[in-house]
Amino acid sequence: MAVEPVEANIKEVAGRIRALREDMGISVEDMARATGRSVEEYVAQESGTKDLSFTFMYKCAARLGVDVIELMTGENPHLSGYELMRAGDGLAVTKRYNGYQYLHKAPLFKNKLAEPFYVTIPYMADELDAPHLSYHKGQEFDYVLKGRVRFSYEGRIEDLNPGDSVMYDSGRGHGLAALDGEPCVLLAIVLRPREEEGPSEYHVAQQFQQGRRTTREII
Fold first, then answer.
1. What CA–CA distance (Å, rounded) separates 178 from 200?
2. pTM confidence score
């Protein structure tokens, strides 16, 4: 299943977030707290004028009680047995500000306990000296497939080679940067915290009892 990169539809993704937030009566201030942004930063992202990182979308989905894939595509994951994904296929996400490329390898599998990604990290020299740190509740497992990568974690540095891996508490500051002037490729498994395993009972009840419109219809 090949899918166009999400960056081409930033405003659509942002529109889904806004529509769900308003539909559920959640304030901008509440969402800003949930995503770790100032109100001004959150409004810029919800308006679609600023790049949307996967971490931001993941936190929005957790607060809104939906699967992050619903925000990204407007579709609810529906497979429950297994999902086969061929090499090179997946739901593509690209960070415009740093060029990271993600392929979500199981976008249609519902009630996921983890988000699997095939990640390509471009070489950026400035990231080696001042790495951008991310924070999202849960755990993450990264396995290096190609190239070398520098793992930064709350002031500690580890250089990883192909075949190396690292698992960590992703709620604490962490970052990855390619080494040796070449891009690196890794498999990243983002594990949900236990309190965020699947849509909230409130969201499911609202959909069932009120026959709430789908995200695509709202947009």
1. 37
2. 0.74
